[in-house]
Amino acid sequence: MTEISSAMGFIAAVEVAAAVLIVMHTTVGLPARLRPWVTKCTIVTRTGAVGLAASAIVVAAAVLGAVSWWCSTTDPTWAWGVLGSLLLLLVGAAAESSIHQAVAGRRRLARR
Fold first, then answer.
1. 104 near 43, Cβ under 8 Å?
2. What is the number of alpha carbons within 13 Å of residue 11 lying toward its C-beta?
3. Residue 29: CA atoms inside 13 Å, Cβ hemisphere, count?
4. How many of the other CB atoms lie within 10 Å of CB of 24?
5. Which pLDDT tens digit goes with each residue over 40-68?
6. What percent of the chain has a predicted confidence (pLDDT) above 70?
7. What is the pLDDT of residue 67?
8. 35, 66 in Cβ contact below 8 A?
9. What spatial distance separates the first Cα and last Cα of the chain, rounded to whole Å?
10. pTM of the predicted structure, to 2 decimals
11. Which among 72, 87, 92, 81 is positioned nearest to 6, based on CA atoms?
12. Higher confidence at residue 76 or residue 15?
């Protein structure tokens, strides 16, 4: 049981780190040399709190992964929650670029 919990803890930690980087990209921006490692999104302007909408799926995945890992320390069946959150993280990371561009486009239109 400890081995499963340790493995799921590593996955949950990676999910949280990925979520932090994507939230940083969508809100305050990332340095140009780091951005290609995090996302394929081409938006370089800061979108602030509005950009959180683009990373909401990834944040939900990170929270689900952390909670599932914590629960898996006592009940190993919660490990499926960590694996499910990993799938959700991958979907959110893939969708982030298009959502971020749509949110940034609406923000630009609202400023006019």
1. yes
2. 26
3. 10
4. 17
5. 777 777 777 777 888 888 999 999 999 99
6. 91
7. 94
8. no
9. 57
10. 0.80
11. 72
12. 15
Q: Rounded to a whole number, what is the largest CA-CA distance in the chain?
A: 57
Residue 94 pLDDT greater than 80, yes or no: yes
Phi/psi region, residue 48 (left: phi>0; alpha: psi -120 to 50; beta: rest), is left
The pair of three-digit structure tokens given for residue 112, joined into one six-digit string: 């006019």
CA separation for the pair 64, 48 (Å, rounded)? 24
Q: What pLDDT is stored for residue 105 in this prediction?
A: 72
CA 89 to chain centre: 6
Q: Which pair of tokens denotes residue 72?
A: 């898996």
Domain ranges, residue 105? 2-111
- Give residue 12's pLDDT: 92
How far is 46 from 25, CA to CA, in rounded Å?
8
Give the span between the Cα atoms of 27 and 5, in whole angstroms.
Answer: 32
Return d(Cα 86, Cα 6) in angstroms, integer.
15
The pLDDT of residue 24 is above 90: no
Q: Distance from CA of residue 49 to its chain's centroid?
A: 15
Number of structural domains (the chain) is 1
